[in-house]
Amino acid sequence: MKATGNVYTIDLAGNQYQSPRYLQSRARINSLIDHYMSLEVLSDRLSDLPQQFSTPHPRPWEPIDWQGINRDQIIGVKPEIFLQILASAAEIEAPIRSYGRESWCYLQHIYPQMARFMGGIFDVNGNILEIGVWEKEERQHCPTFRKIYQQLTAEKLQVKPNSVNGCQSTGDAWQDTYKHVISRLSTEWGATSVYLWLMVHSTGALQQAISQPLQDEINHLAKFWGFSRWAFSQSYFNQLKGSTKNLIALLKHHQIERTHGNDVFNTSLSLKQLSLVLELTFTFTRVMVRLRRWNRELSRSYLRHLFGTAPMVDAPRHVA
Q1: Could you give the C-alpha distances from 3 to 10, 73, 115, in angstroms and in order?
Q2: Tens digits of per-residue pLDDT, 281-308?
Q3: Is residue 202 domain-resident?
Q4: pTM above 0.90, yes or no
Q5: What phi-psi label fits residue 14: left (phi over 0), alpha (psi between -120 and 50 degrees) or beta?
Q6: At a CB cut-off of 8 Å and minimum separation 6, what does 134 contact?
Q7: Is 197 a domain residue?
Q8: Could you tell me how far CA 140 lies from the centroid of its own chain?
Q9: Do the Cβ atoms of 197 and 32 come closer than 8 Å?
Q10: Could you give the number of structural domains in the chain?
Q11: Is the dihedral angle over the CA atoms 209, 224, 288, 256 positive or is it negative?
């Protein structure tokens, strides 16, 4: 039997450990962020957005070896905890059609091209004529997680979709759209962080499968972050403040638990559970630290070069 923490192979997160300690898991998190969220990757994903406005095209996925996925590829965490978080990830991803339509409603009056990217094109009667690129990419995620869950458990995952409020107008289109974009940022931030954690605690075909929706979320996070900076001229700290507030509300809603399972974060945390909380907190923090570093490169002139004159730069509004 190998000693605890002994390295025995390399995977997408770097050194793979039989039973990783907290610092070893942190090293795997950092390795994934350096690879999938490098400054070059983030800049490339943002610079791709104007091309999506003119010639929409979803990001192609790498093939997934479904038959190669098995429970032995869950590492460093109890399978039931991994499965709980995997199931929560599936629930966060549904219902994408409603999310896309909601974003379209907010963005249509402010920036129609971004509305098309998110929700597509509708006729005068509200019928969908073209599905948005964001929706095409996102709608693959819930089925992917459900299929992974079934492959790991031989059981079908019954997903309870989120309730979507739809467009709630206050009469201030600028403020309404800003708050919606910040909400989308927090969702992409949360999904990116959770999927990174799932990859840290997986290997082989399982890890590779999770990497596909992860790359979509990073793609969307970069696009939304840059679009928000351009359209609303908000500082990093204002975006962080708004995104954190929305993220906390999102996590409270889901509680990273299943209604039929045990609470991962109960009042009397075991050592393993404490390590899990620390790992997730570290992941969320490291993702935002990387965004802050990248944010320094997003000058007003660079964003104007990408998107033109921002529609709301001179609007005399106050964002709470």
Answers
A1: 17, 18, 53
A2: 999 999 999 999 999 999 999 999 999 9
A3: yes
A4: no
A5: left
A6: 100, 103, 117, 118, 119, 220
A7: yes
A8: 13
A9: no
A10: 1
A11: negative
